[in-house]
Amino acid sequence: MKRMLALPLAALIAAAPLGAAAQDRGDREDRGPRRERSEQQQQRPDRERQQISYSEAASIARSQAGAGARFVGSQGMQGGRYVFAFERDGRVFNVSVSAYR
After folding, report:
1. Cα–Cα distance between 52 and 100 in angstroms, integer?
2. What distance in Å separates the CA atoms of residue 60 and residue 96, rounded to the nearest whole number?
3. How is 68-83 classified by DSSP, letter by letter?
4. What whole-number distance in Å separates Cα of residue 49 and Cα of residue 91?
5. How far is the C-alpha of 44 from the C-alpha of 100, rounded, in Å?
6. What is the pLDDT of residues 14-23, one digit of tens each?
7. Strand 91-98's sheet: what is its strand order?
8. More confident residue, 46 or 8
9. What is the pLDDT of residues 45-99, one digit of tens each?
């Protein structure tokens, strides 16, 4: 009984590296537009923009709102910008901060 299970299992283990090698060759031959775009992005990492955290954006918004402004709330991210609401002298105003560096 054990031999009957061992032989097919050995055949599967032996065939696994061959299947992986075939997949490797297929990846190298794939040079479509999507592959070229990803290679171009890897060559230019300085052009990628990093997204800042919500708390970092809130800190920037507080400094832009100025002294005496009270934080009222946030409208979250809208179109790549964080929007925060502040109040000063009975007037509510929004401060938007880019979500990217």
Report:
1. 6
2. 9
3. T-EEEEEEEEETTEEE
4. 34
5. 17
6. 766 655 555 6
7. 70-78, 81-88, 91-98
8. 8
9. 555 789 999 999 999 999 999 999 999 999 988 889 999 999 999 999 999 999 9
In which residue are the tokens 């000063």 written? Answer: 88
Residues 6 or more apart whose Cβ sits within 8 Å of residue 82: 54, 57, 58, 61, 74, 76, 96, 97, 99
3 state DSSP class of 99: coil
Pairing of strands 70-78, 91-98: unpaired
- Residue for token digits 């032989």? 7
**Bridge partners, 81 (sequence order):** 78, 98
**Beta-bridge partners for 85:** 73, 94
